[in-house]
Amino acid sequence: QVALSCKAVICCRVTPLQKADIVRLIRKNVKAITLAIGDGANDVGMIQAAHVGVGISGQEGLQAASSSDYSIAQFRFLKKLMFVHGAWSYIRLSRVILYSFYKNIALYMMQLWFAMFNGFSGQILFERWSIGMYNVIFTALPPLAMGIIDQTVSSRKRMEQPELYHNTQKGKHFKTSVFWAWILLALYHSLVTFLLSFRALSLGTVLANGQVVGNWFVGTATYTVMLFVVTIRASMTIDFWPKINYFAVWFGVFLWIFYLLIYCRLWPTFNVGVNLSNMDVELFETGSFWFMTPIIPFIVLTVDVAIKHFRKKFSPSIEQEVMEQENFEALGLEEDRQDSAFTRFLKGMIILFKRDMGWKRSRRHPPSASDVPLNAGDQSSYGSTTGRDADNVELSNFGPTVDVATGDSSSPGLKRAPTLRLVADNEHMRRGYAFSQSEAGLGGHSRTAVAQDQLVRRYDTSAGK
After folding, report:
1. H or E segment at 27?
2. What three-state secondary structure class fits 407?
């Protein structure tokens, strides 16, 4: 209990086995995800005992890096690994799992609703090949877009605001309540889509050739509507929209239409597709089909849009607030919480329009000189000046004055200078700066050793030793 009440606990001179036992003790008594990081062979047991193991490939060999889940070159990279890539990975996996359950329940539960209307005779609603290709082709790319490309809040904002990590640390994106909310949403979409489609295409609907619609006509039309529903729901889930995501989300819908045009013409040339023979012509010549295809998804997803807007308006998460702030900053618009819903809607449409026109700067754009200050007291900033446009760097109050001519830092004739100005061109700025560990004076004089906090030495990282 004493250890749990502390923010940090330091264990000195422990053996590798004791390190692993400490991690196992925490896993057993504390409901938390553990992470162990080390750089040597004595850390392997600890790394393997934790939920997530991170190894540093350094001077002590590659044993820790080879036994870990993730390998990094320096300890300072752990911040970005957790706050950016870790958070993105957690959100991506959560959405992929939830959406995969949702889209399958939404479609296949229609077979149960249809069974209630046919006396549980075993008659299926959808054609067999259409059922088999639903997950393999028509809805295969949206989960890939969520799991690989999607980004909730840019990496720059996540590094600037570590509090964004709290939602992922507390597991708010994937928990029991969220899972069952998606399941209930899938059941609702499935039931409403089936009832509205079945009603719109009742047996009284007459085709252009004078015949009435049948089982396969209703099933194919309902399948088309549901494909639009799950596709639009995927677009509401994704936050990051490069051009590849537009293709990934809507490719399945266009492929389904192309599939109908080809598959419905195979029979009788090939012994497949007999149930959907000439079905594309019947669908596209029926006014009810063109009426229900846009209207039913709009009705079904109205609840989703209302819930999403209500949460964003009255109970926004910190991630939603930061993403909205990013959009307004990128477009030069001012955000006002007092704006009416219509005003905020117009601003949102401007954001979408300018983003589609390519006016929105990519999130992967490197920060400018004003975004990354060079702080003389922070060693982590050295070496991070790549791409900086500044030609002059001024370090204020940088210790006692050093005589550049003699290397003597204790000359009585020199006064303490408040600043040390380093002037370099852009090429040299890209080399970086580092503190000297032990410099034996300047200008070839070895009688005076300049301490680390008294000298900044420019070095060339690309030069051979």
Report:
1. helix 16-29
2. coil
